[in-house]
Specification:
The chain is built from seven helices and ten strands. It is an alpha/beta fold. The relative contact order is 0.23.
Length: 207
């Protein structure tokens, strides 16, 4: 059993590793996340190699609040504010148009960025301590189903990443819902169904 002191020490170690370009596996409210600091292209490339992921496929980032991405994305839209207030922290990833450059390794230069605030205090503390977003792609090899079994995670990634945080994930049994907001279009696009239903989303933004 990990005490709060032990958790705080682990947080400091993870922050140091991430700051130095390391790859760590962190718990979230859905599945474990394969995480690097999101503004380090070399670390992102390493993540793609470890995950065996096609470079053309974007990965989402995890943030502690909307303010974390203010310099990259327009966060003023009413639908975004309503969705963030209703479902964050939680299992909703929102894909937003970029207004400033972000490492193209994250999104294949698409001009959009998927963002989420995870409902997990441990990982939130890491993001807050870093003062930067981290990647939030699930800790699995591409095309293999994600798992919450920490022993499976260790077996797959033990020699490939810097730190695996042996801390339970939250209760969700589905990957996050993913929606896209495009300022040039009305409404939203549902890219992946998940714990937050389309009905709930429509109700919040009055669609």
């Amino acid at each position: 059993m990990k005490t709060e002191k032990n958790k705080n020490i682990l947080i400091d170690e993870i922050v140091a590793e991430l700051s130095n370009g390391g790859v760590c596996i962190l718990p979230t409210d859905t599945y474990y996340s394969l995480s690097v600091v999101a503004d380090k292209p070399s670390a992102i490339n390493n993540l793609f190699e470890i995950k065996e992921r096609d470079l053309s496929k974007p990965v989402p980032i995890l943030i502690s609040s909307l303010l974390d991405i203010k310099k990259y994305c327009d966060i003023s839209s009413e639908p975004l504010q309503k969705l963030a207030n209703s479902f964050w922290p939680g299992p909703l990833t929102i894909v937003l148009p970029l207004i400033n450059d972000f490492p193209k390794e994250i999104n294949n230069g698409s001009g959009f960025l998927g963002v989420r605030v995870p409902d997990h205090s441990f990982t939130q503390k890491i993001i807050e301590s870093l003062g930067k977003p981290i990647t939030g792609t699930s800790a699995n090899i591409s095309n293999v189903a994600p798992t919450k079994d920490i022993n499976e995670i260790k077996q797959t990634f033990n020699k490939k990443v810097s730190i695996i945080a042996d801390i339970d994930c939250g209760p969700e049994n589905l990957s996050s819902t993913v929606i896209k907001i495009d300022n040039n279009k009305s409404g939203i696009d549902i890219l992946r169904e998940g714990p937050v239903s389309l009905e709930k989303i429509k109700k919040v933004i009055n669609l």
